[in-house]
Specification:
By secondary structure, the chain is mainly alpha-helical. The protein has helices at about 5-15, 20-25, 50-55, 55-70, 80-100, 110-135.
Length: about 140
């Protein structure tokens, strides 16, 4: 913009600024700035259950989206998450319960095996996801 056009705009807006004053920013008053203090959370497990409850719909939709994306391309869908440990449990029952006769301390062996397999699958999936996340975030330069 030329200087004549800028002067005309200044006159129309009712301000009279010189060229030097227009280039410098206005002074900052540090006393009016809000002060943000960041402090660590208290305790080992400081779960903010109130905010979790407040954003429960967001959490639900994020979990639902993750489930849909994970099982979208499988033939039987999300049922695979239940069917896979169940089939593994059947194999364990036949091999370790029937043939090897491992004791289960009075519990029915299918329940004993299914409980252990569910815990193992949760741990295995968490460890696999953590490793994939770590390798995907690694700096490759």
């Amino acid at each position: 913009m030329t200087q004549a056009v800028e002067q005309d705009l200044d006159k129309a807006s009712g301000s009279s600024r010189s060229g030097a004053a227009r280039d410098t920013p206005p002074p900052v008053d540090n006393t009016t700035r809000p002060r943000v203090v960041i402090q660590p959370s208290r305790g080992l497990f400081n779960l903010d259950l109130r905010s979790l409850w407040e954003y429960r719909e967001l959490l639900f939709f994020l979990v639902w989206r993750d489930i849909r994306v994970r099982y979208k391309q499988t033939l039987i869908g999300a049922a695979w998450a239940i069917l896979q440990p169940f089939l593994t449990m059947l194999i364990f029952v036949v091999i370790f319960g029937v043939f090897a006769k491992f004791p289960s301390d009075g519990l029915p062996y299918p329940i004993f095996a299914y409980t252990a397999i569910l815990l193992w699958f949760c741990f295995s999936q968490a460890a696999t996801s953590a490793a994939q996340s770590g390798t995907a975030s690694a700096c490759t330069t």
